[in-house]
Specification:
36% helix, 11 helices, four-stranded antiparallel sheet
Length: 353
């Protein structure tokens, strides 16, 4: 056996939801937005001067940083942008988690966290959620190398209160606390105000969900300028031009259109609440989702059976085989028509059993 193979990095990678390409499918497995991006995005595409693509982009992505800072009412020095929130989070892991103490995050949460920890050789501990899939703040009081919390959480959809988050932060002022707010726009509110109160808090958000730009890969973080500067130092150590010219212009345009954003968000929340009522009628149980998906378990028919039967109908939802959640389905919120079809087909499956 060749000796060079002894030096390969062996790691179990993150597995995203499948991306089928079927004409008649209903795709509810990756929490994408069922509606198109803001109308201004179309205008950018229609009028974009493609000759500019021969030039490198602005390494600081200034136009996008300015637009994000204006929208969130923070200083430009408090904003970091990256190629989706996954890129932003990976940079944060490299920048902040360098002690010998383990970082802490829940046992049921975004499954990229432990992958990054393994990849970057960061020690970590996964803290069990309670039976209601809620974080237990006191679990995070001990000595550690940092804390990462998705809020609302994925795949459970549960949102912790601002008081619970601040309790954890108060007990961890010597390490960086990352709050991953990928789904926050579908919840009751952001923890953004905490970045001015605590210098060690980083808020991470994405354009992939509420702003309908999963295919563009735009994410950002907000925190005190020292945190942002440290992240930029890491970023520029291996990629000087992270954001494309086109993604910067599209991202800036998308965040400026507040009325379209609010309108789309309200539609998704309304459809989510209708879907909750219908799933309850069919015998499902779930927590109070504050995201654009519902994490549900049926009292009689297994999640795996429903998953496979829906797939036969070209309706794709997400099923996880992980312990504690193997009998749950994560169902993204689509259009009203898509969710009505989902309910009809699911009801027919349940009646078979």
């Amino acid at each position: 056996m060749s000796s060079w193979k002894d030096n390969l990095r062996k790691i179990e990678p993150y597995v995203p939801g499948e991306q089928p390409d079927l004409e008649d499918m209903i795709k509810l497995n990756t929490n994408e937005n069922p509606y198109p991006p803001a109308p201004g995005v179309r205008k950018v595409l229609d009028h974009y001067d493609e000759s500019m693509l021969r030039l490198y982009p602005d390494p600081n992505s200034s136009l996008l940083v300015q637009a994000i800072a204006k929208y969130h009412k923070v200083d430009e020095g408090q904003v970091f942008v990256g190629v989706g929130s996954d890129d932003v989070l990976a940079i944060a892991f490299m920048a902040f988690f360098n002690s010998k103490e383990p970082i802490l995050f829940p046992d049921i949460t975004y499954s990229f966290y432990d992958v990054w920890a393994e990849l970057f050789k960061i020690p970590y501990r996964q803290m069990p959620l309670n039976d209601a899939f809620e974080v237990i703040p006191s679990d995070y009081y001990g000595k550690n190398g940092g804390v990462v919390l998705a809020n609302p959480n994925a795949p459970t959809g549960i949102a912790q209160s601002l008081e619970a988050l601040e309790d954890i932060i108060l007990h961890n002022q010597d390490v960086v606390v990352i709050i991953d707010e990928a789904y926050v726009d579908f919840s009751k509110g952001t923890a953004l105000r905490l970045i001015d109160k605590y210098e060690n808090v980083l808020i991470v958000q994405t354009y992939s969900k509420s702003r309908s730009l999963a295919g563009m890969r735009i994410g950002h973080a907000m925190g005190n300028p020292e945190l942002i500067a440290a992240m930029n130092d890491v970023r520029f150590s291996f990629n000087s031009y992270p954001m494309t010219r086109l993604s910067v212009e599209i991202g800036a345009e998308a965040i400026r259109d507040v009325s379209y954003f609010e309108e789309t968000k309200k539609k998704i929340i309304a459809t989510r609440e209708w879907t909750k009522r219908e799933l309850l009628r069919l015998g499902f149980s779930f927590g109070d989702s504050m995201t654009n998906f519902i994490f549900a378990s049926h009292h009689r028919v297994s999640a795996e059976v429903i998953f496979e039967k829906l797939k036969e109908k070209h309706i794709f939802v997400r099923h996880f085989s992980k312990e504690r959640i193997s009998n749950y389905l994560r169902i993204s919120i689509g259009t009203d028509e898509e969710m009505k079809r989902l309910i009809e087909e699911t009801e027919a499956i349940i009646e078979e059993y």
